[in-house]
Amino acid sequence: MEVTHIDVEAGVRYWEDATVNGVADEDGTLIPGRVGEHWKVRIRLADGVVEDWPAGTTADIHYKVCDEGQYWLSDASRQRQMKWAGYYVPNDFLCHGGRGYGDYIILEIDGAGVIQGYQQPTIDDEEWQVVEPAAQERNDG
User: Fold this and answer.
1) Structural domain total, the chain
2) Which ranges in the chain belong to alpha helices (H)?
3) What is the dihedral of CA 85, 91, 94, 99, to 10 degrees?
4) Is the alpha carbon torsion for 108, 111, 117, 118 positive or negative?
5) Under a CB-based contact definition with an 8 Å cutoff, are residues 108 and 59 in contact?
6) Would residue 118 count as lying in a domain?
7) pLDDT tens, position by position, 67-123
8) For 21-42, what is each residue's pLDDT tens digit?
9) What are φ and ψ of residue 58, in 5° steps?
10) Rounded CA gap, 49 and 96, in Å?
C-alpha cells in the first residue's frame, strides 16, 4: 500500500485564529476547505501541497483542534488506507512553522497552496491503524 496524502477533518474551535490573504477570518467564512464546523483538506505528503487550494489565496493558520479531529492517510485514488490512532493532532504532519503540542494545526499556506517550511513526515506504523478493506472509505473531496 502506498499512501500519498493526508486527509484532514478537523473540528476547529476558533476560526478567528487564521488570516486569509492578510485578513483576520473572524467567522471562518474566508478559509478554503471549511465544511460546516470542520476544516477538510487533502495534503500531498511528498511536497506539502494542499489540493484544490484556490490560486492566489494565502493563509496563516493556528487552529485549536484538541481531540476534535480525524486524520487519514490515503492513496492517489483517494482510498483511505490508515487512520490516525491518537486523540491529538499529528504534529509531524500538520505543524510546520510552530509547535502545536497536539492541540493545534499550524500552517502557513502560500498562493500556490504550498505549506511553507514543509518537511515530509515519516510515517510511524505504530501511530496509524490500517483501515480494513471492507471499512475503507473513499475521500471524494
Assistant:
1) 1
2) 91-94
3) 160
4) positive
5) yes
6) yes
7) 789 999 999 999 999 999 988 999 999 998 777 767 899 999 999 999 999 999 999
8) 999 999 999 999 999 999 999 9
9) -115, 155
10) 13
Starting at the earlier edge strand, list the strands of the sheet with 80-84.
34-35, 38-44, 5-11, 69-74, 80-84, 128-130
User: What is the domain range of residue 60?
Assistant: 5-132
Determine the pLDDT at residue 141. 62
- DSSP 3-state of 39: strand
Residue found under cell 487550494: 53
Between CA 46 and CA 82 the distance in angstroms is: 17
Collapsing DSSP to helix, strand or coil, 115 comes out as strand
**For 40-72, how does the pLDDT look when each residue is reduced to its tens digit (9 = 90+)?**
999 999 999 999 999 999 999 999 996 789 999
Residue 121 maps to a domain: yes
Residue 13 corresponds to which cell in the numbers above? 474551535
List the grid coordinates of 62.
493556528
- Residue 129 CA to residue 125 CA, distance in Å, equals 7
pLDDT, tens digit (0-9, with 9 covering 90-100), for 121-131: 999 999 999 99
